Amino acid sequence: MMTIGELASCAGVTVRAVRHYHAKGLLPEPERDHSGYRRYRAGALVELLRIRALAEAGVPLARVRELLRAEQNEFAAAVAGIDRRLRAEIRERQRHRARIARLAAGDGLALPPDVVEFLDRLRALGIDERIVRVERDGWIPLVAHAPERIPEWLARKREQLAVPQLVDFYRALGQALDRADGEPRLIEVADALAAHLARTVDAHGERYVDDVDLAPPLVELMDALAFDTAPPARRLVELLEERGWTGWTRLERLAAQHGPGVR
């Protein structure tokens, strides 16, 4: 025979919880002994453990009451259903854990591993972290908009990283971000990038430069993300327009500049 305190301790609950289950009609209250204390038999502990297990599994107390009174087959079926729900919740929580782990790692929250690898490659090449963030922020809407084209765009990006002049452009733009008056450096960057774009078009055609096929609102969004992260990028776009190119996410050759006159 146990007191209410001993019962609660054995079941791993509080005395208050036991009294709450009494009030809800889940656990019958025993008669008081000659000393005025309620004494619980072993069967009460078994019932309390069942109540606790069901309640901790998220079963509402009203449903717990029904299950405690159910036939064995009905109870077993209900427990099987609870188990299926718990396993589904566990799988969902595991997915959340994986997302949190990627969040702790940085870029991987919203980007596939291949894109994260590309961003890490930029860092390994000494590209300024702000420029890497511009790239990262641009990839996020691309992944959401056209995930099937990510391998194609990544292959193009990897080809570009094999060109020393383009890597130098990335580095130079990063250096311009740290200068109080970065205009001279931005002019150098614009000259170098315009020359590189002209050579690329001559070698591969204009579709190689402008091949994103994105809706104008998405292009505007990606441009805004870049300009917010690296404000000098807006000035660089202006300088590029003077050299025959327009745009940031979607680079296009200005019609009036077609031909050998492009610098």
What does this structure look like?
- The chain is mostly helical.
- The chain folds into two domains: 4-102, Orthogonal Bundle (Multidrug-efflux Transporter Regulator, Chain: A, Domain 2), CATH 1.10.1660.10; 108-257, no CATH class.
- It is built from twelve helices and two strands; from the N terminus they run H-H-H-H-H-H-H-H-H-H-H-H-E-E.
- The protein has helices spanning 4-11, 15-23, 42-56, 61-68, 72-105, 113-124, 129-145, 150-161, 164-177, 183-204, 216-229, 232-242, and strands at 245-246, 252-253.
- A two-stranded antiparallel sheet has the order 1-2.
- A hairpin with a 5-residue loop joins strand 1 and strand 2.
- Helix 6 runs parallel beside helix 8 (150-161).
- The longest helix is centred in the middle third of the chain and has 34 residues, at 72-105.
- 17% of the residues are buried.
- Mean pLDDT is 81; it is low at 256-263.
Q: What labels describe this entry?
A:
single chain; 12 helices; Multidrug-efflux Transporter Regulator, Chain: A, Domain 2; 263 residues; two-stranded antiparallel ribbon; 2 domains; 67% helix; disordered C terminus; mainly alpha
